[in-house]
Write a structure and sequence with these properties.
Helix content is 43%, strand content 14%. By secondary structure, the chain is α+β, with helices and mostly antiparallel strands. The model has no long low-confidence stretch (mean pLDDT 97). Strand 3 and strand 4 (75-77) form a beta hairpin. It has helices at 3-11, 13-31, 86-95, 108-115, 148-158, 178-201, 210-221, 225-236, and strands at 38-42, 49-52, 66-69, 75-77, 101-105, 137-138, 163-166, 170-175. The protein binds zinc ion.
Amino acid sequence: MTERQVEIMTDYQELRETVALSSRIMAASGSGDFIWGHVSARDPEARGVWLKQASWGLEEITPERVHLVNSDGEVLAGGGQRHSEYPIHTEIMAARPDVGGVVHVHSRYSVALAAAGAELHPVSHEANYFAPHGVPRFTKTADLILTTELGRSVAAALGEAEALFLVNHGVAVVGPDLQTATVAAVVLDRACRQQLLTAGYGGEPSWSGPEESLAKREHIYGGNARHQVWDYLVRQLPALRS
Ligand SMILES: [Zn+2]
Protein backbone atom coordinates (compact mmCIF):
# COMPACT_ATOMS: atom_id res chain seq x y z
CA MET A 1 0.00 0.00 0.00
CA THR A 2 1.15 3.54 -0.68
CA GLU A 3 1.55 6.02 2.17
CA ARG A 4 -1.66 7.75 1.06
CA GLN A 5 -3.57 4.42 1.12
CA VAL A 6 -2.31 3.68 4.63
CA GLU A 7 -3.51 7.15 5.65
CA ILE A 8 -6.99 6.50 4.19
CA MET A 9 -7.16 3.16 6.02
CA THR A 10 -6.21 4.83 9.32
CA ASP A 11 -8.78 7.61 8.86
CA TYR A 12 -11.53 5.06 8.42
CA GLN A 13 -10.57 2.57 11.11
CA GLU A 14 -13.93 2.95 12.85
CA LEU A 15 -15.97 2.41 9.67
CA ARG A 16 -13.85 -0.65 8.84
CA GLU A 17 -14.57 -1.96 12.34
CA THR A 18 -18.30 -1.55 11.67
CA VAL A 19 -17.99 -3.51 8.40
CA ALA A 20 -16.09 -6.25 10.25
CA LEU A 21 -18.66 -6.43 13.05
CA SER A 22 -21.53 -6.49 10.56
CA SER A 23 -19.88 -9.35 8.64
CA ARG A 24 -19.37 -11.35 11.82
CA ILE A 25 -22.95 -10.70 12.97
CA MET A 26 -24.30 -12.00 9.65
CA ALA A 27 -22.21 -15.15 10.07
CA ALA A 28 -23.24 -15.60 13.71
CA SER A 29 -26.91 -15.23 12.77
CA GLY A 30 -26.62 -18.13 10.31
CA SER A 31 -26.29 -16.23 7.03
CA GLY A 32 -22.77 -17.36 6.22
CA ASP A 33 -22.13 -19.25 2.98
CA PHE A 34 -18.46 -20.30 3.03
CA ILE A 35 -16.60 -17.31 1.48
CA TRP A 36 -19.69 -15.75 -0.14
CA GLY A 37 -21.87 -12.88 0.98
CA HIS A 38 -20.63 -9.36 1.69
CA VAL A 39 -21.50 -6.12 3.44
CA SER A 40 -20.51 -2.52 2.85
CA ALA A 41 -20.67 0.98 4.31
CA ARG A 42 -20.78 4.15 2.25
CA ASP A 43 -17.51 6.11 2.13
CA PRO A 44 -18.19 9.50 3.77
CA GLU A 45 -15.93 11.14 1.16
CA ALA A 46 -17.98 9.70 -1.74
CA ARG A 47 -15.11 7.64 -3.17
CA GLY A 48 -17.12 4.42 -3.12
CA VAL A 49 -17.86 1.76 -0.49
CA TRP A 50 -15.95 0.10 2.31
CA LEU A 51 -16.47 -3.55 1.42
CA LYS A 52 -15.58 -6.87 3.00
CA GLN A 53 -12.71 -8.47 1.08
CA ALA A 54 -13.34 -11.65 -0.95
CA SER A 55 -11.81 -15.06 -0.15
CA TRP A 56 -12.70 -14.85 3.56
CA GLY A 57 -15.79 -16.13 5.37
CA LEU A 58 -18.00 -13.49 6.97
CA GLU A 59 -16.92 -14.76 10.41
CA GLU A 60 -13.26 -14.14 9.55
CA ILE A 61 -13.56 -10.44 8.80
CA THR A 62 -11.37 -8.04 10.77
CA PRO A 63 -10.97 -4.30 10.02
CA GLU A 64 -7.80 -5.20 8.06
CA ARG A 65 -9.92 -7.32 5.68
CA VAL A 66 -12.12 -4.40 4.61
CA HIS A 67 -11.17 -2.27 1.62
CA LEU A 68 -12.34 0.81 -0.27
CA VAL A 69 -13.83 0.06 -3.71
CA ASN A 70 -15.05 2.63 -6.24
CA SER A 71 -17.94 2.33 -8.70
CA ASP A 72 -15.60 0.87 -11.36
CA GLY A 73 -14.57 -1.89 -8.98
CA GLU A 74 -11.12 -0.43 -8.42
CA VAL A 75 -9.64 -1.07 -4.95
CA LEU A 76 -8.54 2.39 -3.75
CA ALA A 77 -7.20 1.34 -0.35
CA GLY A 78 -6.77 -1.84 1.62
CA GLY A 79 -5.61 -4.39 -0.96
CA GLY A 80 -6.92 -7.95 -1.02
CA GLN A 81 -9.29 -9.62 -3.46
CA ARG A 82 -12.46 -7.75 -4.39
CA HIS A 83 -15.88 -9.40 -4.48
CA SER A 84 -17.12 -9.70 -8.07
CA GLU A 85 -20.62 -8.59 -7.01
CA TYR A 86 -19.47 -5.13 -5.86
CA PRO A 87 -22.05 -3.47 -8.23
CA ILE A 88 -24.82 -4.54 -5.83
CA HIS A 89 -23.30 -2.12 -3.32
CA THR A 90 -22.12 0.72 -5.55
CA GLU A 91 -25.26 0.85 -7.69
CA ILE A 92 -27.70 0.71 -4.76
CA MET A 93 -25.74 3.51 -3.07
CA ALA A 94 -25.80 5.52 -6.31
CA ALA A 95 -29.56 5.12 -6.68
CA ARG A 96 -30.38 5.64 -3.01
CA PRO A 97 -28.66 8.64 -1.36
CA ASP A 98 -30.48 7.72 1.88
CA VAL A 99 -28.62 4.39 2.08
CA GLY A 100 -25.42 4.20 4.14
CA GLY A 101 -25.06 0.43 4.40
CA VAL A 102 -25.80 -2.63 2.24
CA VAL A 103 -25.86 -6.29 3.23
CA HIS A 104 -25.83 -9.00 0.56
CA VAL A 105 -26.04 -12.52 1.92
CA HIS A 106 -27.40 -15.90 0.86
CA SER A 107 -29.52 -16.40 3.98
CA ARG A 108 -31.12 -19.80 3.96
CA TYR A 109 -34.68 -19.01 5.05
CA SER A 110 -34.94 -15.87 2.92
CA VAL A 111 -33.82 -17.85 -0.14
CA ALA A 112 -36.29 -20.65 0.70
CA LEU A 113 -39.29 -18.36 1.06
CA ALA A 114 -38.48 -16.35 -2.07
CA ALA A 115 -37.83 -19.50 -4.14
CA ALA A 116 -41.21 -20.86 -3.04
CA GLY A 117 -42.78 -17.82 -4.70
CA ALA A 118 -44.40 -16.62 -1.49
CA GLU A 119 -44.85 -12.99 -0.58
CA LEU A 120 -43.55 -12.06 2.87
CA HIS A 121 -46.39 -11.72 5.41
CA PRO A 122 -46.10 -10.40 8.98
CA VAL A 123 -47.09 -13.64 10.73
CA SER A 124 -44.90 -12.53 13.69
CA HIS A 125 -43.29 -9.22 14.71
CA GLU A 126 -40.38 -9.42 12.30
CA ALA A 127 -41.91 -8.82 8.85
CA ASN A 128 -43.54 -5.61 10.08
CA TYR A 129 -40.06 -4.11 9.95
CA PHE A 130 -40.42 -3.94 6.17
CA ALA A 131 -43.76 -2.07 6.07
CA PRO A 132 -45.00 -0.25 4.05
CA HIS A 133 -42.92 -1.24 0.98
CA GLY A 134 -42.58 -4.92 1.79
CA VAL A 135 -39.78 -6.97 0.25
CA PRO A 136 -39.89 -6.90 -3.57
CA ARG A 137 -38.47 -9.68 -5.75
CA PHE A 138 -35.63 -9.46 -8.29
CA THR A 139 -36.13 -12.12 -10.95
CA LYS A 140 -34.11 -10.88 -13.92
CA THR A 141 -31.39 -13.42 -13.16
CA ALA A 142 -30.47 -15.77 -10.33
CA ASP A 143 -26.83 -15.56 -11.46
CA LEU A 144 -24.24 -13.27 -9.88
CA ILE A 145 -24.60 -9.49 -10.18
CA LEU A 146 -21.36 -8.86 -12.05
CA THR A 147 -22.04 -5.73 -14.10
CA THR A 148 -23.00 -2.11 -13.50
CA GLU A 149 -26.10 -2.71 -15.60
CA LEU A 150 -27.27 -5.62 -13.43
CA GLY A 151 -26.42 -3.62 -10.32
CA ARG A 152 -28.71 -0.87 -11.60
CA SER A 153 -31.49 -3.40 -12.22
CA VAL A 154 -31.12 -4.63 -8.65
CA ALA A 155 -31.33 -1.03 -7.37
CA ALA A 156 -34.42 -0.44 -9.54
CA ALA A 157 -36.11 -3.58 -8.20
CA LEU A 158 -35.33 -2.49 -4.63
CA GLY A 159 -36.99 0.88 -5.27
CA GLU A 160 -37.79 2.58 -1.96
CA ALA A 161 -37.86 -0.69 -0.01
CA GLU A 162 -35.42 -1.73 2.70
CA ALA A 163 -34.84 -5.24 1.42
CA LEU A 164 -34.99 -7.18 -1.83
CA PHE A 165 -35.21 -10.90 -2.51
CA LEU A 166 -32.71 -11.89 -5.22
CA VAL A 167 -34.80 -14.93 -6.05
CA ASN A 168 -32.85 -18.25 -6.10
CA HIS A 169 -29.75 -16.36 -4.94
CA GLY A 170 -29.97 -14.24 -1.76
CA VAL A 171 -31.04 -10.88 -0.42
CA ALA A 172 -29.93 -7.25 -0.56
CA VAL A 173 -30.82 -5.30 2.58
CA VAL A 174 -30.20 -1.60 3.17
CA GLY A 175 -30.34 0.99 5.91
CA PRO A 176 -29.34 4.58 6.61
CA ASP A 177 -26.18 3.09 8.14
CA LEU A 178 -24.64 -0.39 8.09
CA GLN A 179 -25.70 -1.07 11.68
CA THR A 180 -29.36 -0.66 10.71
CA ALA A 181 -28.98 -2.65 7.47
CA THR A 182 -27.39 -5.48 9.44
CA VAL A 183 -30.22 -5.61 11.96
CA ALA A 184 -32.73 -5.55 9.08
CA ALA A 185 -30.99 -8.48 7.38
CA VAL A 186 -31.09 -10.54 10.59
CA VAL A 187 -34.75 -9.61 11.16
CA LEU A 188 -35.62 -10.52 7.54
CA ASP A 189 -34.25 -14.03 7.82
CA ARG A 190 -36.11 -14.54 11.10
CA ALA A 191 -39.32 -13.28 9.45
CA CYS A 192 -38.88 -15.76 6.59
CA ARG A 193 -38.11 -18.60 8.98
CA GLN A 194 -41.24 -17.81 11.00
CA GLN A 195 -43.40 -17.77 7.87
CA LEU A 196 -41.95 -21.08 6.67
CA LEU A 197 -42.68 -22.60 10.10
CA THR A 198 -46.23 -21.28 9.97
CA ALA A 199 -46.82 -22.48 6.42
CA GLY A 200 -45.31 -25.88 7.27
CA TYR A 201 -47.87 -26.48 9.96
CA GLY A 202 -50.83 -25.87 7.65
CA GLY A 203 -53.85 -24.58 9.53
CA GLU A 204 -55.22 -21.18 8.61
CA PRO A 205 -52.39 -18.66 8.90
CA SER A 206 -53.18 -15.08 9.89
CA TRP A 207 -51.08 -11.93 9.80
CA SER A 208 -51.24 -8.18 10.50
CA GLY A 209 -52.97 -5.91 8.00
CA PRO A 210 -51.22 -2.79 6.58
CA GLU A 211 -52.35 -0.40 9.31
CA GLU A 212 -51.38 -2.64 12.23
CA SER A 213 -48.16 -3.48 10.42
CA LEU A 214 -47.11 0.18 10.28
CA ALA A 215 -47.99 0.69 13.94
CA LYS A 216 -46.01 -2.41 14.96
CA ARG A 217 -43.05 -1.25 12.89
CA GLU A 218 -42.99 1.99 14.86
CA HIS A 219 -43.67 0.41 18.27
CA ILE A 220 -41.14 -2.41 17.93
CA TYR A 221 -38.40 -1.04 15.69
CA GLY A 222 -38.81 2.74 16.15
CA GLY A 223 -36.66 5.14 18.18
CA ASN A 224 -33.33 3.68 19.21
CA ALA A 225 -34.46 0.06 19.05
CA ARG A 226 -32.51 -0.88 15.92
CA HIS A 227 -29.22 0.47 17.25
CA GLN A 228 -29.91 -1.23 20.57
CA VAL A 229 -30.39 -4.52 18.73
CA TRP A 230 -27.07 -3.89 16.93
CA ASP A 231 -25.35 -3.33 20.30
CA TYR A 232 -26.95 -6.55 21.57
CA LEU A 233 -25.76 -8.49 18.51
CA VAL A 234 -22.23 -7.11 18.97
CA ARG A 235 -22.27 -8.24 22.63
CA GLN A 236 -23.31 -11.74 21.56
CA LEU A 237 -20.53 -12.17 18.99
CA PRO A 238 -18.26 -15.15 19.52
CA ALA A 239 -14.56 -14.30 19.89
CA LEU A 240 -12.55 -14.18 16.66
CA ARG A 241 -10.58 -17.34 15.96
CA SER A 242 -7.05 -16.58 14.87
ZN1 LIG B 1 -24.45 -13.31 -4.06
